């Protein structure tokens, strides 16, 4: 017997790409729009980003299905940190690692110019989006960001400690050509070929 995982969701308006964490590497994906009808399929061997529109019988070559296999994601990978009031961090995987308003985060591994107080340290999160973390700290007199760094959760809004966890995804990304219509109820059936014991 092989792996099968079923996902269901309702698309926002407008519908956006989404990651599905299966816990295994997918070999076949079927996506069905329950509201409007229509289905899409991806099979291992398709080029990344492609998808078959089953109803139209056509293959779309972009924004389809892309396998996603991350080995480790322990924090949000930082690509920028402003010297501003408040300081704003630009990072990938912010929502994936669970960073939210009120959390305390630890910033490590930043290379800065060393001219003043380092940007590495603990910060309270004033707000967070998928790609930014706004701190509650005025960083105008801190060192200037050069490269690298990670932000990890230290404690939540209640001050409870957050254990270290690997948030890596084994699954896929459904692009806008495969995710379905705006506001539609959707189902995705993902199959893998690793044996289930």
Please provide a written account of the structure.
This protein is mainly β and 197 residues long. It contains no helices and 17 strands. The strands form four sheets. The chain has a six-stranded antiparallel beta sheet with strand order 1-17-3-4-5-6, with no helix packed on it. It has a six-stranded antiparallel beta barrel with strand order 8-9-13-12-10-15. The chain has a three-stranded antiparallel beta sheet with strand order 2-16-7, with no helix packed on it.
Structure summarized in a few sentences:
The protein has 197 residues and is mainly β. It has two domains: 2-69 and 169-195, no CATH class; 76-155, Elongation Factor Tu (Ef-tu), domain 3 (Beta Barrel). The chain contains no helices and 17 strands.
Secondary-structure topology with pairs:
Blueprint lengths: L1 E9 L7 E4 L4 E8 L5 E5 L7 E3 L4 E3 L4 E5 L6 E6 L6 E5 L11 E5 L2 E2 L8 E8 L3 E4 L9 E3 L2 E6 L14 E5 L10 E11 L2
Antiparallel strand pairs: 1-17, 2-16, 3-4, 3-17, 4-5, 5-6, 7-16, 8-9, 8-15, 9-13, 10-12, 10-15, 11-14, 12-13
Run of helices and strands: EEEEEEEEEEEEEEEEE
Give the count of structural domains: 2
Uncertain residue segments: none
Task: Determine the N-to-C terminus distance.
Answer: 8 Å
The structural class is: mainly beta
Strand content: over 45%
- Which whole number gives the mean pLDDT? 91
Give the total of beta strands: 17
Count of separate DSSP helical elements? 0
- Spatial arrangement of strands, main beta sheet: 1-17-3-4-5-6
């Amino acid at each position: 017997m092989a792996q099968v995982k079923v996902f269901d969701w309702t698309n926002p308006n407008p519908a956006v790409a989404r990651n599905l964490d299966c816990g295994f590497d997918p070999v076949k994906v079927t996506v069905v729009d329950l509201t409007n009808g229509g289905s899409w399929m991806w099979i291992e061997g398709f080029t990344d980003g492609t998808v078959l529109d089953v109803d139209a019988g056509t293959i779309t070559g972009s924004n389809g299905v892309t396998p996603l296999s991350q080995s480790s994601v322990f924090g949000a990978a930082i690509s920028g940190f402003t010297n501003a009031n408040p300081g704003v961090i630009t990072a990938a995987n912010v929502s994936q690692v669970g960073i939210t308003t009120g959390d305390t985060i630890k910033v490590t591994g930043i290379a800065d110019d060393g001219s003043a107080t380092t940007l590495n340290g603990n910060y309270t999160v004033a707000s967070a989006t998928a790609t930014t973390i706004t701190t509650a700290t005025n960083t105008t007199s801190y060192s200037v960001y050069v490269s690298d760094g990670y932000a990890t959760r230290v404690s939540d809004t209640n001050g409870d400690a957050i254990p270290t966890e690997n948030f890596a995804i084994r699954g896929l990304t459904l692009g806008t050509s495969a995710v379905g219509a705006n506001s539609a109820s959707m189902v995705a059936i993902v199959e893998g070929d690793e044996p289930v014991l």
